[in-house]
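Write out a record, fold above all:
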Amino acid sequence: MDPADINKFDGLFWRALALSLPDEGVAYCFPDEPSRLERLIDVRWPQGPTCNKCGSEGVSRIKSRQLFQCEQ
């Protein structure tokens, strides 16, 4: 599939995904912000967080901003 075609269907994909959620929505499985953030981290980085720029595994979490910072 051409990458340009993916953008055409992006809204449809997300709407279909949202409709497949239970009536309670995400809050049913992830009732608070920390649980949602931990799930995002687990899905985004199954082997642990890495730097988006250099790929280093040496990152530290800035909890006040909910970000990771590269230690390199």
